[in-house]
Amino acid sequence: MPSFVTTPRSLGELSTIEYGFATARRGDAEPWARDDLLLVTFAGVYGVGSAGNSDAAFMQGVVVLGLRAFTPAGVVLDLREVDYRWGDMMGAVLNAAIVRGVAPGVVVSGMCRPALTSLVGAELGEDPDAWLFDDPDDALNAVDTAVRRLPGPA
């Protein structure tokens, strides 16, 4: 019988991008309501082009982990501290954050706005103004409004 060599692995091998989670809920929400929104914050340098594929895989994994762990009604991605210039795989990160058909709000800064505007418009075929926001509260309000338009419980 052959022997196997095991190699310890870490998600940190994929990317140096840092992340954090927070939940947000409207101040007038009922305590029992399942309408929390998940805010996923990323910071770091996203590799340019295919050099960013492992960053995208890592970020997508973080989003999926957050969805499973916190079961939010919607998601806001805060990318203000991500130096993102180009790379189509970022689309997979944005798509992973879609909950019940509600697109994520994406908070941007000058470090990532030009590339994300191009990605959302040209690659995803969506209106960047509907996805990209300068302020986290604007993104949270947009996602909350979209979630509240859905039929049935969140």
Short characterization:
With about 150 residues, the chain is α/β, with parallel strands linked by helices. Helix content is about 35%, strand content about 20%. The termini are far apart.
Give the end-to-end Cα distance, rounded to a whole number of Å. Answer: 52 Å
The main pleated sheet reads as: 5 strands, mixed
Give the averaged pLDDT, no decimals.
Answer: 93
User: What structural class do helix, strand and pairing data support?
Assistant: alpha/beta
Low-confidence stretches: none
Tell me, what's the shape?
globular
Protein topology:
Layout: E1 18-24, E2 37-45, H1 53-70, E3 74-83, H2 90-96, E4 105-107, H3 113-123, H4 128-131, E5 132-133, H5 136-149
Helix pairs in contact: 1-2
Summarize the structure in words.
With 154 residues, this protein is α/β, with parallel strands linked by helices. It is built from five helices and five strands; from the N terminus they run E-E-H-E-H-E-H-H-E-H. It has helices at 53-70, 90-96, 113-123, 128-131, 136-149, and strands at 18-24, 37-45, 74-83, 105-107, 132-133. The protein has a five-stranded mixed β-sheet, with helices on both faces. Strand 2, helix 1 and strand 3 form a beta-alpha-beta unit. Helix 1 runs parallel beside helix 2 (90-96).
